[in-house]
Inverse folding.
Protein backbone atom coordinates (compact mmCIF):
# COMPACT_ATOMS: atom_id res chain seq x y z
CA UNK A 1 0.00 0.00 0.00
CA UNK A 2 2.84 2.39 0.79
CA UNK A 3 4.28 1.87 -2.69
CA UNK A 4 1.12 3.17 -4.43
CA UNK A 5 0.44 6.84 -5.09
CA UNK A 6 -3.13 7.68 -6.14
CA UNK A 7 -4.21 10.52 -8.42
CA UNK A 8 -7.91 11.31 -8.80
CA UNK A 9 -8.82 13.23 -11.96
CA UNK A 10 -11.54 15.65 -10.91
CA UNK A 11 -11.35 18.41 -13.49
CA UNK A 12 -14.29 17.55 -15.70
CA UNK A 13 -16.68 20.33 -16.68
CA UNK A 14 -19.71 18.01 -16.70
CA UNK A 15 -21.38 19.82 -19.60
CA UNK A 16 -24.24 17.31 -19.87
CA UNK A 17 -25.13 17.82 -16.19
CA UNK A 18 -25.81 21.53 -16.54
CA UNK A 19 -27.30 23.42 -14.75
CA UNK A 20 -26.04 21.29 -11.80
CA UNK A 21 -22.48 22.02 -12.94
CA UNK A 22 -22.88 25.74 -13.55
CA UNK A 23 -21.30 26.55 -10.18
CA UNK A 24 -19.36 23.38 -9.36
CA UNK A 25 -17.26 20.64 -10.94
CA UNK A 26 -19.03 17.37 -11.70
CA UNK A 27 -17.31 15.46 -8.83
CA UNK A 28 -18.70 18.06 -6.40
CA UNK A 29 -22.34 17.56 -7.44
CA UNK A 30 -24.42 16.33 -4.45
CA UNK A 31 -25.66 12.76 -4.58
CA UNK A 32 -27.81 10.58 -2.35
CA UNK A 33 -28.85 13.40 -0.04
CA UNK A 34 -25.68 13.94 1.99
CA UNK A 35 -22.83 12.93 -0.31
CA UNK A 36 -20.86 14.40 -3.21
CA UNK A 37 -20.06 12.24 -6.24
CA UNK A 38 -16.33 12.25 -5.43
CA UNK A 39 -17.01 10.74 -1.99
CA UNK A 40 -17.46 7.30 -3.54
CA UNK A 41 -14.04 7.24 -5.20
CA UNK A 42 -12.33 8.63 -2.08
CA UNK A 43 -14.16 6.12 0.13
CA UNK A 44 -12.91 3.35 -2.15
CA UNK A 45 -9.38 4.62 -1.56
CA UNK A 46 -9.71 4.55 2.22
CA UNK A 47 -11.47 1.19 2.22
CA UNK A 48 -8.66 -0.17 0.02
CA UNK A 49 -6.02 1.05 2.45
CA UNK A 50 -4.64 3.80 0.19
CA UNK A 51 -3.36 6.76 2.17
CA UNK A 52 -1.58 9.03 -0.34
CA UNK A 53 -4.18 10.62 -2.59
CA UNK A 54 -3.92 13.74 -4.75
CA UNK A 55 -7.13 15.13 -6.28
CA UNK A 56 -6.35 17.07 -9.47
CA UNK A 57 -8.90 19.84 -9.92
CA UNK A 58 -9.28 22.52 -12.58
CA UNK A 59 -12.66 24.03 -13.46
CA UNK A 60 -14.99 25.65 -10.90
CA UNK A 61 -12.85 24.21 -8.18
CA UNK A 62 -13.97 26.17 -5.09
CA UNK A 63 -16.82 23.89 -4.01
CA UNK A 64 -14.80 20.72 -4.55
CA UNK A 65 -11.67 22.09 -2.88
CA UNK A 66 -13.68 23.20 0.16
CA UNK A 67 -15.40 19.82 0.43
CA UNK A 68 -12.09 17.94 0.38
CA UNK A 69 -10.46 20.33 2.82
CA UNK A 70 -13.17 20.21 5.50
CA UNK A 71 -14.59 16.74 4.83
CA UNK A 72 -11.55 14.65 4.00
CA UNK A 73 -8.87 15.97 6.33
CA UNK A 74 -8.96 12.64 8.16
CA UNK A 75 -5.45 11.23 7.73
CA UNK A 76 -2.24 11.77 9.69
CA UNK A 77 0.16 13.99 7.77
CA UNK A 78 2.96 13.12 10.20
CA UNK A 79 2.79 9.55 8.89
CA UNK A 80 2.88 10.72 5.27
CA UNK A 81 -0.85 10.16 4.81
CA UNK A 82 -3.09 12.69 3.10
CA UNK A 83 -5.95 13.41 0.74
CA UNK A 84 -5.18 16.76 -0.87
CA UNK A 85 -6.67 18.83 -3.68
CA UNK A 86 -4.07 20.03 -6.18
CA UNK A 87 -4.86 22.95 -8.53
CA UNK A 88 -3.05 23.41 -11.88
CA UNK A 89 0.35 24.92 -11.13
CA UNK A 90 1.82 25.37 -14.63
CA UNK A 91 5.15 23.90 -13.51
CA UNK A 92 5.87 22.39 -16.93
CA UNK A 93 4.06 24.79 -19.25
CA UNK A 94 1.59 27.67 -19.20
CA UNK A 95 -1.18 25.39 -20.48
CA UNK A 96 -4.22 24.25 -18.58
CA UNK A 97 -4.62 20.47 -18.49
CA UNK A 98 -5.00 19.42 -22.12
CA UNK A 99 -6.20 15.87 -21.36
CA UNK A 100 -6.15 13.19 -18.69
CA UNK A 101 -2.57 12.18 -19.43
CA UNK A 102 -1.38 15.79 -19.52
CA UNK A 103 -2.95 16.40 -16.09
CA UNK A 104 -0.80 13.61 -14.64
CA UNK A 105 2.25 14.71 -16.63
CA UNK A 106 2.03 18.25 -15.28
CA UNK A 107 2.09 16.77 -11.77
CA UNK A 108 5.06 14.43 -12.22
CA UNK A 109 6.75 16.18 -9.31
CA UNK A 110 4.08 14.91 -6.91
CA UNK A 111 4.74 11.22 -7.32
CA UNK A 112 8.42 11.51 -8.10
CA UNK A 113 8.83 13.24 -4.75
CA UNK A 114 6.98 10.38 -3.08
CA UNK A 115 9.24 7.80 -4.78
CA UNK A 116 6.15 5.71 -5.56
CA UNK A 117 6.61 2.43 -7.41
CA UNK A 118 3.04 2.35 -8.70
CA UNK A 119 0.63 5.08 -9.78
CA UNK A 120 -3.13 4.55 -9.58
CA UNK A 121 -5.19 6.87 -11.78
CA UNK A 122 -8.89 7.23 -10.93
CA UNK A 123 -11.85 9.25 -12.16
CA UNK A 124 -13.60 11.37 -9.55
CA UNK A 125 -17.09 11.27 -11.09
CA UNK A 126 -18.22 7.63 -10.95
CA UNK A 127 -20.43 5.82 -8.43
CA UNK A 128 -19.20 2.33 -7.49
CA UNK A 129 -17.40 0.26 -4.83
CA UNK A 130 -14.07 -1.36 -5.56
CA UNK A 131 -11.07 -2.67 -3.64
CA UNK A 132 -8.15 -1.34 -5.65
CA UNK A 133 -5.70 -3.70 -3.96
CA UNK A 134 -7.20 -6.59 -5.93
CA UNK A 135 -6.19 -4.71 -9.06
CA UNK A 136 -2.67 -4.32 -7.66
CA UNK A 137 -2.37 -8.05 -6.99
CA UNK A 138 -3.44 -8.71 -10.59
CA UNK A 139 -0.74 -6.37 -11.93
CA UNK A 140 1.93 -8.15 -9.87
CA UNK A 141 0.68 -11.60 -10.88
CA UNK A 142 0.81 -10.69 -14.59
CA UNK A 143 4.05 -8.68 -14.28
CA UNK A 144 2.20 -5.98 -16.21
CA UNK A 145 3.29 -2.43 -16.97
CA UNK A 146 -0.28 -1.23 -16.66
CA UNK A 147 -3.62 -2.73 -15.71
CA UNK A 148 -6.88 -1.16 -16.91
CA UNK A 149 -10.12 -1.55 -14.96
CA UNK A 150 -12.71 -3.24 -17.19
CA UNK A 151 -16.44 -3.82 -16.90
CA UNK A 152 -18.73 -6.04 -18.97
CA UNK A 153 -20.75 -3.95 -21.42
CA UNK A 154 -23.47 -5.17 -23.79
CA UNK A 155 -21.99 -5.06 -27.28
CA UNK A 156 -24.76 -2.73 -28.53
CA UNK A 157 -23.60 -0.08 -26.00
CA UNK A 158 -19.92 -0.28 -26.98
CA UNK A 159 -20.08 3.01 -28.91
CA UNK A 160 -20.31 4.87 -25.57
CA UNK A 161 -17.06 3.49 -24.11
CA UNK A 162 -13.41 2.87 -24.65
CA UNK A 163 -13.38 -0.83 -25.55
CA UNK A 164 -10.56 -3.32 -25.00
CA UNK A 165 -9.93 -6.41 -27.10
CA UNK A 166 -8.28 -9.10 -24.94
CA UNK A 167 -6.91 -12.58 -25.38
CA UNK A 168 -7.77 -15.54 -23.15
CA UNK A 169 -5.19 -14.37 -20.57
CA UNK A 170 -6.83 -10.90 -20.41
CA UNK A 171 -3.85 -9.25 -22.11
CA UNK A 172 -5.07 -6.24 -24.07
CA UNK A 173 -4.36 -6.50 -27.80
CA UNK A 174 -6.37 -3.48 -28.94
CA UNK A 175 -8.02 -0.39 -27.44
CA UNK A 176 -10.68 1.56 -29.36
CA UNK A 177 -12.56 4.68 -28.31
CA UNK A 178 -16.32 4.30 -28.93
CA UNK A 179 -16.00 1.73 -31.75
CA UNK A 180 -18.86 1.09 -34.16
CA UNK A 181 -17.74 -2.50 -34.80
CA UNK A 182 -16.23 -3.76 -31.50
CA UNK A 183 -14.60 -7.13 -30.85
CA UNK A 184 -16.52 -9.17 -28.25
CA UNK A 185 -14.96 -11.09 -25.38
CA UNK A 186 -13.38 -14.43 -26.38
CA UNK A 187 -16.08 -16.52 -24.69
CA UNK A 188 -19.04 -14.14 -24.90
CA UNK A 189 -20.16 -12.81 -28.31
CA UNK A 190 -22.69 -10.41 -26.76
CA UNK A 191 -20.29 -8.60 -24.40
CA UNK A 192 -17.27 -6.32 -24.63
CA UNK A 193 -14.78 -5.04 -22.07
CA UNK A 194 -15.42 -1.35 -21.42
CA UNK A 195 -12.77 0.82 -19.81
CA UNK A 196 -13.73 2.20 -16.36
CA UNK A 197 -11.19 5.01 -16.58
CA UNK A 198 -9.10 3.29 -13.88
CA UNK A 199 -5.41 2.68 -14.58
CA UNK A 200 -2.67 1.20 -12.39
CA UNK A 201 0.84 1.81 -13.80
CA UNK A 202 4.35 0.97 -12.85
CA UNK A 203 5.72 4.47 -12.28
CA UNK A 204 8.82 4.00 -14.44
CA UNK A 205 6.73 2.92 -17.43
CA UNK A 206 4.22 5.73 -16.92
CA UNK A 207 6.91 8.38 -16.67
CA UNK A 208 8.50 7.30 -19.93
CA UNK A 209 5.18 7.23 -21.74
CA UNK A 210 4.05 10.64 -20.47
CA UNK A 211 7.31 12.32 -21.45
CA UNK A 212 7.09 10.82 -24.94
CA UNK A 213 3.43 11.81 -25.32
CA UNK A 214 4.09 15.40 -24.21
CA UNK A 215 6.38 15.90 -27.22
CA UNK A 216 3.69 14.85 -29.70
CA UNK A 217 0.58 16.59 -30.97
CA UNK A 218 -1.88 14.12 -29.48
CA UNK A 219 -5.02 14.54 -27.38
CA UNK A 220 -2.84 13.68 -24.36
CA UNK A 221 -5.45 11.20 -23.18
CA UNK A 222 -4.95 7.83 -21.52
CA UNK A 223 -7.67 6.05 -23.48
CA UNK A 224 -6.96 7.65 -26.85
CA UNK A 225 -3.17 7.79 -26.77
CA UNK A 226 -1.24 6.33 -23.84
CA UNK A 227 -2.87 2.89 -23.57
CA UNK A 228 -3.05 2.19 -27.36
CA UNK A 229 0.64 3.02 -27.75
CA UNK A 230 1.68 0.89 -24.78
CA UNK A 231 -0.09 -2.16 -26.22
CA UNK A 232 2.55 -2.39 -28.95
CA UNK A 233 5.63 -2.52 -26.72
CA UNK A 234 4.56 -3.11 -23.12
CA UNK A 235 2.45 -5.52 -21.10
CA UNK A 236 -1.09 -4.15 -20.87
CA UNK A 237 -3.70 -6.22 -19.06
CA UNK A 238 -7.40 -5.77 -18.31
CA UNK A 239 -8.67 -6.29 -14.78
CA UNK A 240 -12.26 -7.45 -14.60
CA UNK A 241 -14.24 -5.30 -12.18
CA UNK A 242 -14.75 -6.98 -8.81
CA UNK A 243 -17.75 -5.27 -7.23
CA UNK A 244 -17.51 -4.60 -3.48
CA UNK A 245 -21.21 -3.65 -3.52
CA UNK A 246 -22.02 -7.37 -3.18
CA UNK A 247 -25.20 -7.49 -5.22
CA UNK A 248 -26.35 -9.87 -7.92
CA UNK A 249 -25.74 -7.21 -10.59
CA UNK A 250 -22.50 -5.22 -10.64
CA UNK A 251 -22.94 -1.51 -9.98
CA UNK A 252 -20.81 1.11 -11.75
CA UNK A 253 -22.33 4.37 -12.91
CA UNK A 254 -20.92 7.23 -14.91
CA UNK A 255 -23.65 9.73 -14.16
CA UNK A 256 -23.26 11.71 -17.34
CA UNK A 257 -26.76 13.08 -17.91
CA UNK A 258 -29.48 14.70 -15.82
CA UNK A 259 -31.84 11.77 -16.34
CA UNK A 260 -29.15 9.26 -15.33
CA UNK A 261 -28.39 11.35 -12.25
CA UNK A 262 -32.07 11.46 -11.26
CA UNK A 263 -32.52 7.72 -11.83
CA UNK A 264 -29.45 6.82 -9.75
CA UNK A 265 -30.67 8.99 -6.87
CA UNK A 266 -34.17 7.57 -6.92
CA UNK A 267 -32.84 4.02 -6.95
CA UNK A 268 -31.61 4.69 -3.40
CA UNK A 269 -35.16 4.91 -2.02
CA UNK A 270 -36.11 1.41 -3.20
CA UNK A 271 -36.73 -1.32 -0.64
CA UNK A 272 -33.70 -3.16 -2.03
CA UNK A 273 -31.68 -0.55 -3.94
CA UNK A 274 -29.06 -1.57 -6.49
CA UNK A 275 -26.44 0.45 -4.60
CA UNK A 276 -26.14 -0.25 -0.87
CA UNK A 277 -25.33 2.80 1.26
CA UNK A 278 -25.89 0.89 4.49
CA UNK A 279 -23.05 -1.64 4.26
CA UNK A 280 -21.05 -1.21 7.48
CA UNK A 281 -18.18 -3.20 6.00
CA UNK A 282 -17.76 -0.61 3.23
CA UNK A 283 -18.55 2.81 4.73
CA UNK A 284 -19.03 5.83 2.49
CA UNK A 285 -17.50 8.91 4.08
CA UNK A 286 -18.44 12.52 3.51
CA UNK A 287 -18.48 15.88 5.24
CA UNK A 288 -20.95 15.70 8.11
CA UNK A 289 -22.75 19.01 8.59
CA UNK A 290 -23.96 19.91 12.07
CA UNK A 291 -27.68 19.47 11.46
CA UNK A 292 -30.37 18.51 13.98
CA UNK A 293 -32.44 15.36 13.39
CA UNK A 294 -35.11 15.34 10.70
CA UNK A 295 -38.57 16.16 12.00
CA UNK A 296 -42.11 15.39 10.78
CA UNK A 297 -44.87 17.50 12.30
CA UNK A 298 -48.69 17.71 12.20
CA UNK A 299 -50.70 14.51 12.17
CA UNK A 300 -54.24 15.73 11.52
CA UNK A 301 -55.18 12.78 9.37
CA UNK A 302 -58.57 13.81 8.13
CA UNK A 303 -59.91 15.28 4.93
CA UNK A 304 -58.45 18.75 4.44
CA UNK A 305 -56.07 18.36 7.40
CA UNK A 306 -52.30 18.40 7.59
CA UNK A 307 -49.90 15.49 7.88
CA UNK A 308 -46.12 15.73 7.79
CA UNK A 309 -45.02 12.44 6.24
CA UNK A 310 -42.29 10.95 4.02
CA UNK A 311 -42.80 7.60 2.31
CA UNK A 312 -40.22 5.55 0.38
CA UNK A 313 -37.77 8.44 0.69
CA UNK A 314 -34.32 9.41 1.92
CA UNK A 315 -34.55 12.35 4.34
CA UNK A 316 -31.37 13.92 5.74
CA UNK A 317 -30.72 15.81 8.97
CA UNK A 318 -32.15 19.27 9.46
CA UNK A 319 -35.22 18.59 7.31
CA UNK A 320 -38.67 19.55 8.59
CA UNK A 321 -41.70 18.07 6.86
CA UNK A 322 -44.30 20.43 8.27
CA UNK A 323 -47.72 19.24 7.25
CA UNK A 324 -46.57 18.24 3.76
CA UNK A 325 -46.13 14.93 1.98
CA UNK A 326 -42.92 13.57 0.44
CA UNK A 327 -42.92 10.34 -1.55
CA UNK A 328 -40.27 8.48 -3.55
CA UNK A 329 -37.80 11.36 -3.18
CA UNK A 330 -34.35 12.27 -1.87
CA UNK A 331 -34.10 15.26 0.49
CA UNK A 332 -30.70 16.73 1.30
CA UNK A 333 -30.05 18.45 4.67
CA UNK A 334 -32.06 21.43 5.88
CA UNK A 335 -35.02 21.18 3.51
CA UNK A 336 -38.41 22.60 4.54
CA UNK A 337 -41.65 21.18 3.14
CA UNK A 338 -44.56 23.31 4.32
CA UNK A 339 -48.30 22.79 4.84
CA UNK A 340 -50.23 20.76 2.24
CA UNK A 341 -47.25 20.60 -0.15
CA UNK A 342 -46.73 17.43 -2.16
CA UNK A 343 -43.28 16.30 -3.38
CA UNK A 344 -43.07 13.21 -5.60
CA UNK A 345 -40.23 11.49 -7.48
CA UNK A 346 -37.82 14.36 -6.88
CA UNK A 347 -34.30 15.19 -5.73
CA UNK A 348 -34.30 18.19 -3.42
CA UNK A 349 -30.93 19.63 -2.44
CA UNK A 350 -29.76 21.51 0.63
CA UNK A 351 -31.50 24.59 2.05
CA UNK A 352 -34.53 24.38 -0.25
CA UNK A 353 -37.86 25.72 1.04
CA UNK A 354 -41.06 24.42 -0.58
CA UNK A 355 -43.94 26.75 0.15
CA UNK A 356 -47.39 25.64 1.27
CA UNK A 357 -49.85 24.09 -1.19
CA UNK A 358 -47.06 23.54 -3.75
CA UNK A 359 -46.80 20.44 -5.94
CA UNK A 360 -43.46 19.15 -7.19
CA UNK A 361 -43.11 16.10 -9.42
CA UNK A 362 -40.13 14.57 -11.31
CA UNK A 363 -37.80 17.44 -10.50
CA UNK A 364 -34.28 18.17 -9.39
CA UNK A 365 -34.16 21.30 -7.24
CA UNK A 366 -30.61 22.53 -6.61
CA UNK A 367 -29.45 24.22 -3.40
CA UNK A 368 -30.79 27.46 -1.87
CA UNK A 369 -34.02 27.67 -3.87
CA UNK A 370 -37.17 29.05 -2.25
CA UNK A 371 -40.32 27.81 -3.99
CA UNK A 372 -43.25 30.14 -3.34
CA UNK A 373 -46.64 28.95 -2.09
CA UNK A 374 -48.99 27.29 -4.60
CA UNK A 375 -46.23 26.63 -7.14
CA UNK A 376 -46.63 23.68 -9.50
CA UNK A 377 -43.55 22.09 -11.07
CA UNK A 378 -43.61 18.97 -13.21
CA UNK A 379 -47.29 19.19 -14.21
CA UNK A 380 -47.15 21.56 -17.20
CA UNK A 381 -44.19 20.86 -19.44
CA UNK A 382 -44.58 23.93 -21.62
CA UNK A 383 -44.82 26.27 -18.64
CA UNK A 384 -41.84 24.58 -16.96
CA UNK A 385 -39.72 24.88 -20.11
CA UNK A 386 -40.22 28.66 -20.12
CA UNK A 387 -38.65 28.95 -16.66
CA UNK A 388 -36.41 25.94 -16.08
CA UNK A 389 -34.27 23.29 -17.75
CA UNK A 390 -36.46 20.41 -18.95
CA UNK A 391 -34.96 17.21 -20.36
CA UNK A 392 -36.41 15.19 -23.24
CA UNK A 393 -38.05 12.85 -20.72
CA UNK A 394 -39.77 15.80 -19.03
CA UNK A 395 -37.53 15.96 -15.96
CA UNK A 396 -37.46 19.52 -14.57
CA UNK A 397 -34.20 20.95 -13.19
CA UNK A 398 -34.08 24.18 -11.18
CA UNK A 399 -30.68 25.89 -10.90
CA UNK A 400 -28.89 26.62 -7.64
CA UNK A 401 -30.15 29.76 -5.90
CA UNK A 402 -32.67 30.51 -8.66
CA UNK A 403 -35.14 33.20 -7.67
CA UNK A 404 -38.78 32.20 -8.16
CA UNK A 405 -41.51 34.80 -7.84
CA UNK A 406 -44.99 34.03 -6.60
CA UNK A 407 -46.58 36.40 -9.10
CA UNK A 408 -45.17 34.33 -11.96
CA UNK A 409 -44.77 30.85 -10.52
CA UNK A 410 -47.89 30.32 -8.42
CA UNK A 411 -50.95 28.63 -9.87
CA UNK A 412 -53.51 30.67 -8.05
Amino acid sequence: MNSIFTMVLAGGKGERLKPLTEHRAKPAVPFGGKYRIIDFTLSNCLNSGLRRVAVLIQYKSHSLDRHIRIGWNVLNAELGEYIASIPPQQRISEEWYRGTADAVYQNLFLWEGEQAEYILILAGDHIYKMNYMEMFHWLVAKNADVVVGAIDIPIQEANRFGVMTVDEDYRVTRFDEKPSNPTPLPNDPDTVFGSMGIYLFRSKSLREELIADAKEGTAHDFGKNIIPRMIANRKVYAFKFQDANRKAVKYWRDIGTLDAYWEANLDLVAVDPLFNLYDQQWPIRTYQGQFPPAKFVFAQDYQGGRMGVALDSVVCGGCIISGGRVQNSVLSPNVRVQDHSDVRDSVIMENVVIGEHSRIRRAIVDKDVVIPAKTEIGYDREADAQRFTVTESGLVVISKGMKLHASVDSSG
In short: The chain has a mean pLDDT of 91.
